[in-house]
């Protein structure tokens, strides 16, 4: 029965998923500088004249049953900065009871986009395979994918 004992030791000595999540959250919050962010206004469709607060629109979307929200804009328009600010806001909401884990994924940093983006991003954040399995079994994720235009993808992710 030594094999079972080794497995038990490994599980007991592995960092707690909750503690690892809090560490990732802390690191992401530390990296963010709110002084450089200006709230964006956007149009729902290219031809529309009326603009809306982008964060409000995204939060409405996240509270709906819809699955994909695409933000298009010229280079330098603030899409990446918005995505990072959104991630920070969602991490702050995570503390307040929202159990969806925000994952900012800079797509060009993922070696193989055909693999599981959640797994790849969690590996980048130094989660173990068993922690990743536990997170995927027990949590939902909000994927904030950035840099799609830099990947030169000719197909959908």
Word description of this protein:
With 157 residues, the protein is α+β, with helices and mostly antiparallel strands. The chain has one domain (16-150). Helix content is 45%, strand content 11%. It has helices at residues 2-13, 17-31, 54-62, 79-95, 117-124, 129-138, and strands at 41-42, 52-53, 100-106, 140-146. Mean pLDDT is 83; it is low at 6-13.
List keywords for this structure.
two-stranded parallel ribbon, P-loop_NTPase, 157 residues, WD_REPEATS_REGION domain-containing protein, alpha+beta, 4 strands, 45% helix
The H/E string reads HHEEHHEHHE
Shape: globular
Number of helices: 6
| Major pleated sheet | 2 strands, antiparallel
Q: Which structural class matches the secondary elements?
A: alpha+beta
| Strand fraction | 5-15%
Uncertain regions: pLDDT < 50 for 5+ in a row?
6-13
């Amino acid at each position: 029965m030594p094999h079972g004992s080794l497995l038990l030791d490994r599980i007991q000595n592995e960092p707690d998923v909750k503690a690892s999540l809090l560490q990732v959250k802390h690191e992401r919050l530390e990296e963010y500088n709110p002084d450089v962010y200006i709230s964006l206004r956007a149009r729902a469709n290219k031809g529309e004249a009326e603009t809306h607060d982008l964060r409000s629109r995204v939060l409405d979307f996240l509270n709906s049953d819809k699955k994909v929200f695409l933000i298009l804009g010229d280079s330098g328009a603030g899409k990446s900065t918005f995505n990072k600010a959104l991630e920070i806001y969602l991490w702050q909401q995570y503390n307040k009871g929202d159990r969806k884990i925000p994952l900012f994924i800079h797509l060009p940093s993922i070696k193989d986009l055909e693999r599981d983006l959640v797994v790849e991003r969690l590996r980048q954040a130094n989660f173990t395979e068993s922690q990743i399995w536990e997170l995927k079994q027990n949590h939902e994720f909000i994927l904030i994918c950035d840099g799609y235009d830099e990947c030169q993808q000719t197909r959908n992710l």
